Amino acid sequence: MPKKEKINRENYLEVKKYLDYQERVRQCEQATLKQKWAHLRHFLEWALSTRFYDAPKLRLTFQNYILGARNDSIKKPLSASTMNRACQEVQEFYKWAKMYLPNDYKRISERWIDTIRLSKTKLNMQGLEDRKYYSKDEVEKICSYEPEILIDMRDRAAVALLYLSAIRITAFVSLPVRCVDINNMTVFQYPSEGVITKNSKTQITILLPINPLIKIVKEWDDKLRIERGLNSLWYPKMSTDGLSWGDTTGDTESSRKSFRRGLRKLCKLTGVEYKSSHKLRKGHGVYAVENSENYQDFQAYSQNMGHEDPGTTYKYYSKFSNDDVKAVILRKK
Fold first, then answer.
1. How many CB atoms lie within 10 A of CB 14?
2. What pLDDT does residue 122 have?
3. Which helix (H) or strand (E) holds 13?
4. Is 91 exposed, middle or buried (0-12, 13-18, 19+ CB in 10 A)?
5. What integer is the mean pLDDT of 285-296?
6. CA nearest 145: which of 230, 265, 250, 274?
7. Where are the beta strands (DSSP E) in 185-282?
8. CB 310 within 8 A of CB 302
9. Is 19 helix (H, G, I), strand (E, B) or coil?
10. Which of 159, 200, 164, 202 is nearest to 181 (CA)?
């Protein structure tokens, strides 16, 4: 039996250097780095013993390899969006390598790097991917649940605030009470106050004026101010049984996991399909697109989400779910 080909050690070390660059220079969050590593594992497993700078010699291209790639036990192809992101990550790696390891990667051409992409034909072969997000109706249904214990009250309010603000989950779980001003419909995402934002960006966010959700957020905010104080986290730790306040210590990752558990529980209780926490931000973006009557409105919503370019909002948030597309078309006379 022939020996199984091993991953090239130099390739692995270069991937680690690239990720270190993404963390130190690009200021990527740990969740982002984890996603990048997942994509780069495919990259390493594709090249195996071949050095990355010799990859153009490989008969199987990365964009063809990724069509059947998987590094878990699930026996179905990766989603089209995941395959796209993997190709983009490999492109970014080569661009980084040409800049920081020029002697080794001088033979890699920009034209070849640009070929590392999935064609529309191959994307279509993967099937039509539905655009998943939490709609306003779904969020209101989740928040209509009357909590019986403290932890459910916390998680319900968290769902409401995440949808109203489009705040990213890492920023949210590091948000102190003093940075939330419900009366003025404002959340202050200030790294100087301990909020862990993407790329350490300072941002002021205005909440969507959806009164049933605002009421739930204010109820929780008032309770925190009275019982925990301004320096408490808006998403505080809870006791194991969920009946009382917990320790003030803990990392953001444990809080993220806690919210995912809470969101899953609330979805099950209310009969709403569970989707990731980021789909609350997606839902906010879709709401923004639907409620923009002109370009000025759209630009305001886009800026409120932290996008410097409104094109980013349009590109990633203007595509509706299959059900919403159907609803829009069938209501036309």
1. 23
2. 58
3. helix 9-24
4. middle
5. 85
6. 265
7. 186-189, 203-206
8. yes
9. helix
10. 164
